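As described in the Methods, two query proteins were run sequentially through the folding procedure within a single session, without resetting any intermediate state between them. The first query and its resulting structure tokens are shown here.
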Amino acid sequence: MNMAARKLTYACIAFSSILLAGVRPLFAQDEQPPNASKPKPAGTTYPVPLVVGGQQDEDNNNKLLPDTTPLTGIQAPTLGSPGLQHSYWMPGIQWTGSIQSNSYNQTQSSSWLMNNYFVGNVSLLKAWSRSQLAINYSGGGFITTDSNQGNGYYQNLALSQSFQWNRWQLQFLDQFSYLPQSSFGFGGGSGLATPGTGGPLGPVIPGMGNSTVPNQSIYASVGPRYSNASAVQITYLTSPRGSVTLSGSYGLLNFIDPGNVDSNTISGSIGYNYALNRQDTIGAFYRFSAYHYPGQPEAHGDHSFNLAYGRKVTGRMALQLYAGPDFTTSRITATNADSLNYGVNVGANMQYAFRNSGITLNYSHGISGGSGVLTGSSGDQVNSSVTHQLTRIWSGQLNVGYSHNTPIGLAAQTNTQSYNTWTVGGGVSRPLGRNASLGITYTADFTNYGTPTCAGTACIANQTFHYISINFQWHARPLVLP
């Protein structure tokens, strides 16, 4: 592992240690004696959302607070977040044992192997009168029987800090991961893909979109890698129905092993949101993204102009749709000239909840950094999941994902092939008491790169990976923050 990776790993471990040491281990309100002083509020003091297009159903029975993400922002909408009576933090532990059919290095001689992940989790929600901090973090390592891969580390973090001043809302967002393989399909339904303790008490931090988080959907890039996306977002309320949202972000995808393509992405956007009623919102936004590759002269600048529509029903549905024209300028070193490519930018995010089931669907079409294989790619990515309560204690899930990547401007790249990747899985889980859960999952990943050979570190054009995992999670009761 190189020095940069060690620094990032040690920083995450130090961060979690300080977090665990800096709070008082007090039980939540239901564990306080009757004469305890009135607790400090937490979720109920979250700043009033700026856009009213998602605040309907105030008297709903699910006790969820409405989602406050602006339609033209960089976060995907959610069904809402639980209203809590305390600021709190919650530690936990997790073990995941995974049997897989092939090594991460994708060599033909790979055989079945075993990975054991030992992870510490922590979730934190701290609220003040005009701000709120939410953190979900998981960190640890894995022991493997694969002598080529070797043992390694695992880190996953999601962070959101929000401030509210009258008409203004300011947000600082960050998503970081250090994984032994691609994040696309990683962990299946085991919980490794999601940081924090999870469950109904875990803070809801809306994920940033595919245009902000580096793409990793090509399996031809192999080996440990760290990915980070940091963003600042500002929303200003112009009227009771309208608001303006501005955002800026920086993302990176760096690999430990040689032979992969590191990338950096700088993005900025500006959009206008208008609430038609308490459920429906329309908007328009412009986004610019610049893609650079350390040590390589190629670069891309992507411009997109989009119209957007959103609908939110707290606890029932969250929908975001956008589409618009897109053009990309590319710096071509082979001809010492620039190229211009036209296309479309499309995105859809949906969550829908039934009485005993739930559906999630995410789709995007546009430009990305190239997933560590290409110096820029144009492609499609879709992820979907279905959950259902099978019995009183058992629940089931199905997950399907697909990605298609092609180079941006074939004249600008020596690698001109397309990359198709599928991931399919499912599993069952059940609670073990109040604070623990057990799950069993199966995942299959498929690659089809269209040719007998392919470009990429230890790449095999057509291959199937099978994963069978057992996952155990435990978390403490919420501990009150002062």
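Immediately afterward, the second query was submitted; its sequence and tokens are:
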Amino acid sequence: MLRQRKLDAIIASSPENVSYLCDIPQVPGVVSESQVHGVAFTERIEPALVIPAVALDQWAQSDSPIKDVRIYGEFYYYKQDPLNHEALSSAENKIANIYFGQSRSRDVIHALVNVFRDRGIVKGRIGFDETSVPHTRIRLLHRKFPRVRLVPASEAFKEMRMIKSAEEIDRIRKAVRATERGIRAVMEASRPGVTNRELQFIYRTTIMKSGCTPFFGVIGTGTESAVVNHLPSGHILQKGDIMRIDCNAIYKNYLSDVGRNATLGRPTSKAKQLFDALRKGTAAMELMIKPGVKCSELFKTAVSTVRRTGIENYERQNTGHSLGLQVVEPPLISPTCHTRLRENMVIAIEAPYYELGFGAFNPEDTIRVTKNGVEKLSTMENKLYLL
């Protein structure tokens, strides 16, 4: 990708792009955006990670292949003397080796400058993640390297991340499996008298027992299911409640996105009609998916199918999206996105419906685009479950 864009190096700055280049987790609240940089070079030149000392543990606790880690800024670790490395965990040893084994740069600019100087790169084209790097930092880098041409590269990151590697697909697949185990556990525990908050606890503990990290998960019950980003509540389940379960899990930095739906007791005719129309919309999209199909064509098919089969006034801004290091990544399945599907894209297809005072449904599947069609990464039957 770097050679195609005639780049000698590329600098990642947004948390998801740093994660993409360096395979470290995105830990919210530890550092602000643009304080961590991953730097990749053309072949045979070792990549590097520039990170505040306070966030060194993000790298140390990961399986990142990056060996050249440069720390900067104020943060203080202490150590026993002598330090018994055999008694330390892998993460503790990695922190000790970097923190006590190198001198810290005073700020991020000096750390980046040292990375490039150590590799003898004082000229050429370097791409940078312009959506996340302050302009003052770009000016300072240009002042240090006047023969370097700094060029915007956010589109390069976007294009690289659209097509998933076998490893990325496997991580998403494992996150999906954990999510489905969590959804099944929630459904098994759902009965009159159980609170929404109790179901959230069951979902999150199931995800952790599956070797994943819980992410934002919607378990909407009753009429509250129409609250799009529903937070845990004290709602007590009762017979007749609709359940919209739209959940995510993280496995080694990669996310799932799966939606399943149920009713506590026999569904009303209205509930059945609505869900059937929405499910037909996602099924129609699935039948179309293959390399070369435009996202806008998928959107048009989904909406027209839902309207024709039961919800005449159905409107949506999108009926799906790509996913990976973020729950929602480009391309969107929307009327204005004419990006064509390519092999090994991973997308979530959905057809949500939210009606205040009634409830909501969202049948959603995670799908890999294959050479000839699809591989469904979500395997739990997508139907209206009767609990």
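The longest strand covers residues 242-247. We note this only descriptively and draw no conclusion about the first query from it.
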